[in-house]
Amino acid sequence: MKFFLDTANIDEIKLAASMGILDGVTTNPTLVSREKGAGTFKEMIAQICEIVDGPVSAEVVSTDAKSMLDEAHELAKISENVYIKIPMIREGLKAVKVLSSEGIKTNVTLCFSASQAWLAAKAGATLISPFVGRVDDISGVGMDIIRDIRIIYDNYGYETEILAASLRHPLHLVEAALIGADISTMPYKVFDQLFNHPLTDIGLKQFLADWDKVKDHV
Ligand code: E4P
Fold this sequence. Notes:
alpha/beta, single chain, 8 strands
């Protein structure tokens, strides 16, 4: 499973990239709005593409296919790594179909059902982003959507990759991996939490203390 960071914060992206296990980045208009003063949207995406050797999702903000395509063509010029993030609406899928025929990579976002994911795959989306946490937030079971999409895509051989999004904690990642999602995107906080286990800290403390007792004799 590929690990993406869900942020537009350059410091967080640099930190995660320095660990050597970061495969890509997803942004959205809300995440970008939190980085006021960090340059224009295009400059931010270009900077992220310089740090990360992998897909970087940049979202369009138009809601009609023609304007989405205009935005997408501009964003795609920034780098080969740019994936155009398009909302899961009728006009969005029209744009995805065109971009797919042009060889431009897409990430269909704001997906909340297996039927939406199915349509996105038929339109030729490169990635589909089901939002797990937002479904959990309203007392649904977000992970069930990922499970259904996996079965449908496998049944019919769709190549669209499943990007588990809106992940809130490490267990979400483990569940998504067990189901067979292709990618998980997570906030930096969740990425960092993946490393932690209290028994690791206790064990290391003990090892170092024991070594300290004998280090002059071994
Ligand atoms: C995915 O690409 C989205 O940007 C993101 O995962 C949404 O997460 P949220 O529900 O925590 O805002």
